[in-house]
């Protein structure tokens, strides 16, 4: 949902339809922002992409959890971008990378393989694949969307996350 909200703020002059695909139906969702409707599909993203006859989205977001995707599933993503018909003339990849050096290298390699799969499908990459935009400061979502209220259970979970995971 954070990517939907981000698109609403980044594309104020353009309308779009957002489709979120996740095996987890997260509790915390934003209200739909007119004129940008969204729908949520509770399904395994890998299986969803594998079942598509063609890829017809303008933008594909890959979260930091891209690192948690198994190698076989990553291969399915690469194969889909390389072999399936892509119906748009231009597509955009949005990929979040982890900050520490070791994980950044792994995530960058995965991201490059996705981009190269699209290039193998006949697209030209207009961006430098080695360039990364890094945000040094934390941006509290409320700075941009004052109506957002952090749920108490989310605050509690994050406050105790280190203790829960160690």
Please tag this protein with its features.
single chain, 166 residues, alpha/beta, two-stranded parallel ribbon, 5 helices, 6 strands
How many alpha or pi helices?
Answer: 5
Quaternary state of the chains: single chain
What best-fitting shape do the alpha-carbon axes yield?
globular
Number of strands: 6
List the secondary-structure elements in sequence, H or E: HEEHEEHEEHH
Strand-residue fraction?
5-15%
How many independent structural domains?
1
Rg computed from alpha carbons, rounded to a whole number of angstroms: 17 Å
Unreliable stretches covering 5 or more consecutive residues: none
Secondary structure class reads alpha/beta
Provide the helix percentage: 25-40%
Largest sheet, described in full? 2 strands, parallel
N→C terminal distance = 28 Å
Provide the residue-averaged pLDDT: 80
Q: What order do the strands of the largest sheet run in, or round the barrel if closed?
A: 1-2
Detailed description of the structure:
The protein is of the alpha/beta class and 166 residues long. It has one domain (2-165). 38% of the residues lie in helices and 13% in strands. The strands form three sheets. It has a two-stranded parallel ribbon. A two-stranded parallel ribbon has the order 3-5. The two termini are 28 Å apart. The model has no long low-confidence stretch (mean pLDDT 80).
Please give the structural blueprint.
Layout lengths: L1 H9 L7 E5 L15 E5 L2 H7 L2 E2 L3 E4 L8 H13 L1 E2 L5 E4 L5 H20 L31 H14 L1
Parallel strand pairs: 1-2, 3-5, 4-6
Helix pairs in contact: 3-4
